Amino acid sequence: IYPPAYHGARLRAATMAAAHRLVLLVLALLAVATIAAAASGARRAAVVGKSAVVSLLELDGRGAARETRSGSCYADAKRAEMLGESRKSGAARTATVLELKHHSLTTIPDDPAARDQYLRRLLAADEARANSLQIKNNRGAAASTQSGSSAEVPLTSGIRFQTLNYVTTIGLGGGSSGSAATNLTVIVDTGSDLTWVQCKPCSSCYAQRDPLFDPAGSATYAAVRCNASACAASLKAATGTPGSCATTGGGGSEKCYYALAYGDGSSSRGVLATDTLALGGAARIDGFVFGCGLSNRGLFGGTAGLMGLGRTELSLVSQTASRYGGVFSYCLPASTSGDASGSLSLGGGGGASPSYRNTTLVAYTRMIADPAQPPFYFLNVTGAAVGGNPVAAAGLGAGNVLIDSGTVITRLAPSVYRAVRAEFTRQFGAAGYPATAGFSILDTCYDLTGHEEVKVPLLTLRMEGGAEVTVDAAGMLFVVRKDGSQVCLAMASLSYEDQTPIIGNYQQKNKRVVYDTAGSRIGFADEDCSFV
Ligand SMILES: *[C@@H]1O[C@H](CO)[C@@H](O)[C@H](O)[C@H]1NC(C)=O
Ligand SMILES: *[C@@H]1O[C@H](CO)[C@@H](O)[C@H](O)[C@H]1NC(C)=O
Ligand SMILES: *[C@@H]1O[C@H](CO)[C@@H](O)[C@H](O)[C@H]1NC(C)=O
Ligand SMILES: *[C@@H]1O[C@H](CO)[C@@H](O)[C@H](O)[C@H]1NC(C)=O
């Protein structure tokens, strides 16, 4: 659901009692739903000159507060649902749509001091992830000390995943014995390849909500042989380390063991195996290679494991390429509502696919690979504009930009960030909003108390080949204080010009982001990301 301003509706003052706010929000949501149903094309009209008028109330609901998914709400997460399958003529192209839920590990507190601390931890964890992705130069570590992250976040294992909070549900195993597949809720990660789940008999597993996957209960389960290429080259490309061969138990059969060790101390180790993967209930992929994790450590938030959507052979995208054509896409919801969810579509690239509900054409740019970081998706950002005004910076077009589903806040090269900030400050500041203190990694903040609505200049990124992506209003500002007295530009600077810029998920909200590995291109279109 879009901020009502998009539809020409306006919300009134944000300074009212909580009960009134709730009623107002419900009314607003109803109003938006009605308007959206009546005229889905209306939203562009309210975006004038690449700025958007949004109410403070909406910003609060859709800004920082969207991180409020609590454990109990997560427990209510609906199971993966299949919206529909569409067969295309010609190549075996099928689209499967999975529900993508937002989920985070802790509840955002209402108390201002506790909320402050929560958001600091969230941003510090995000900084830890952004730094962990800077594998080419480890100077990121110095940067995190500089911004105080190390002081705010104890480097316990799993920090890298703490911000990776979109989950979906898959089915695994079952087979011909008549037993049903085990439904498992997993974290969706475009920054890694091997899909893994916790497995019986666990030598060390963290607590998860779903029942543990039991290989013994699946007739279609098989361990991958040591001499298989999946155990050697494929595993090395996916995880950095080839499998190790070991004979366990009295059976004498050799098994291929994988070891995933993430930079922050979290890990998964176990047996590389194959089984039938069920996506969205109906779609079944036989012989899917995954990690049967016997020893897993980290903050995976009660999920059963992880779905790897990276670029190498073992990723789910590559393994299902004959069915889905190597295409997947997602739409990340902006809403904080407990029922809000987006979608993860496998396949369905191009044409009038029923799995997309994009309101603009999908604009594509070249997908770039970096041999030093095989799972990651890169692209080339050649230009930027704020509120429709182009900005110039040495860092534009200078290096590969990572697009990541797990980093929250977009990180720009220092020269690019400075130029974007200067133009944003000029336009936003000119509207009379007083600047206020920075917050964690966010250095450009305003006091918006007393303003019912704000006109937000939107950032447009121009990609190689001409595709233009304008960040949704929900992705421009981060509401630190609920009363609007500290609202920050939701972007941050890298420490060094040669570090890898990252397009984070906060700026990908309400976009259909298409990863076409066969066509080697990444596409963007506007879309209302609610999964209905
Ligand atoms: C792998 O080893 C098994 C026996 O352990 C053998 O039957 C199979 O042919 C081998 N496969 C390859 C590709 O070498
Ligand atoms: C798993 O999910 C599918 C699809 O939603 C459902 O049909 C099936 O009953 C579920 N299986 C179990 C064991 O819950
Ligand atoms: C959605 O994207 C597809 C693929 O680019 C395109 O054919 C279709 O026209 C788009 N829908 C709208 C409403 O622009
Ligand atoms: C990005 O695209 C521009 C324009 O096509 C090109 O000059 C530049 O070399 C490209 N940069 C990278 C890192 O590919």
TrEMBL record:
Residues 1-38 form the signal peptide. It comes from the Eukaryota. GO terms for molecular function: aspartic-type endopeptidase activity. InterPro entries: Aspartic_peptidase_A1, Aspartic_peptidase_AS, CND41-like, PEPTIDASE_A1, Peptidase_aspartic_dom_sf, TAXi_C, TAXi_N. The keyword tRNA-binding does not apply. Keywords: Signal. Pfam families: TAXi_C, TAXi_N. The active site is at D189, D404. One of its GO terms (biological process) is proteolysis. CDD domains: cnd41_like (cd05472). The keyword Signal applies. Belongs to the peptidase A1 family. This is Peptidase A1 domain-containing protein. It comes from Setaria italica (Foxtail millet).
